[in-house]
Design a protein that fits this description.
Length: 329
């Protein structure tokens, strides 16, 4: 088993309503009426859309209400088909199997009165607002300063934009091309990022990449920037082009991973049970503890510090940077 354990839940859709163009907000409850597992802002669910088709959606409701989960799903005609299926076939009364919650985008809120507590800068692009919503609620409840920069193609395609502006006013800055107001991420390194801050960003890959570049150029301290990726980041050539060995310490097996296959595929073929979902390095489900060996981290989940620590790896995409890895599997 990998280091991640997820609860499987048979859920039923109890509400489905449009919250923006091509975005449906689903309310899910346990089919047997029981309370749902607890979660923290930033967590996501694995939703089994169809047998063999799983997608990850950020929880965007109220973590204190464990009678229901809420996820917002953007219809993506050019996607891999999961969101199209949900928009076409999932309605009130539909049964859905979900797993989780799992959180690789955890919010850290200092208790009220903490000296030097950071202020928070949230940056969202389109459907990337979903994990940010409960974060804002938590920071607001803690009485800490925050601001939101929310960009989209048009107001109609930006879920929850009216509620956010209505509730929080000038702390919400909205950027749409039609208004002539463009989100200039480099400006965040000026006025806003001039004292201890925590920056949380979720949006399209180009937004995240640009913000990483801004952070690097401005020399933001380690731990300032927190990113949630819906899409796998671009990766460079693997460190090794040869096969490598993986010893599975718990199973007592050693397998050989050829250049054209993932560790996950080979381990599954060997009959070892490993949880997985996205299989592209974005969800964190296949996280596996590393016993020894150097990893070529190729995922979109771990922070640079976590990758450097070499304690866990995502075996669906990450590989060995040495001839032999030993994993806790
Ligand atoms: S299965 Fe999603 S990160 Fe590996």
């Amino acid at each position: 088993m990998s280091g991640v354990t997820l609860t499987e839940i048979d859920a039923v859709v109890t509400s489905a309503r449009a919250v923006a163009t091509d975005v449906v907000l689903l309310e899910l409850r346990a089919a047997d009426g029981s309370l749902l597992p607890p979660w923290e802002p930033g967590a996501h669910l694995d939703v089994v859309v169809q047998p063999g088709v799983e997608r990850q959606y950020s929880l965007c409701g109220d973590p204190s209400d464990l009678t229901r989960y809420e996820v917002a799903v953007l219809r993506e005609p050019d996607g891999r088909g999961g969101s199209e299926h949900i928009h076409a076939h999932v309605a009130v009364g539909s049964a859905l199997r979900v797993r989780g919650p799992l959180n690789h985008f955890a919010l850290s809120v200092a208790p009220p009165g903490t000296p030097l507590a950071p202020s928070y800068v949230f940056v969202a692009g389109g459907i990337g607002i979903t994990p940010i919503l409960p974060m804002i609620a938590a920071v607001e409840a803690a009485g800490q300063p925050w601001e939101l920069h929310y960009a989209g193609r048009s107001l109609e395609r930006m879920p929850f934009v009216d509620e956010l502006v209505g509730r929080y006013g000038s702390r919400v800055s909205v950027y749409v091309p039609a208004s002539g107001r463009r989100l200039d991420l480099s400006s965040l390194s000026g006025g806003s990022i001039s004292r201890p801050v925590a920056v949380y960003c979720c949006g399209p890959a180009r937004m995240l990449t640009e913000l990483e570049e801004v952070a690097a150029a401005a020399g933001w301290p380690s731990g300032t920037l927190h990113l949630e990726r819906f899409e796998a980041r671009e990766v460079t050539e693997p460190v090794r082009h040869e096969s490598f060995e993986v010893e599975l310490a718990l199973s007592g097996l050693t397998v050989e991973v050829p250049p054209d296959r993932s560790i996950l595929d080979v381990v599954e073929e060997a009959g070892v049970l490993v949880l997985s979902s996205c299989r592209e390095g974005t969800c964190g489900t296949c996280e596996t503890p590393v016993v020894s060996g150097e990893v070529d981290h190729r995922d979109s989940v771990l922070t640079p510090d976590e990758q450097e620590a070499n304690e866990v790896m995502m075996i669906c995409v990450s590989r060995a940077a040495c001839p032999r890895l030993v994993l806790e599997l």
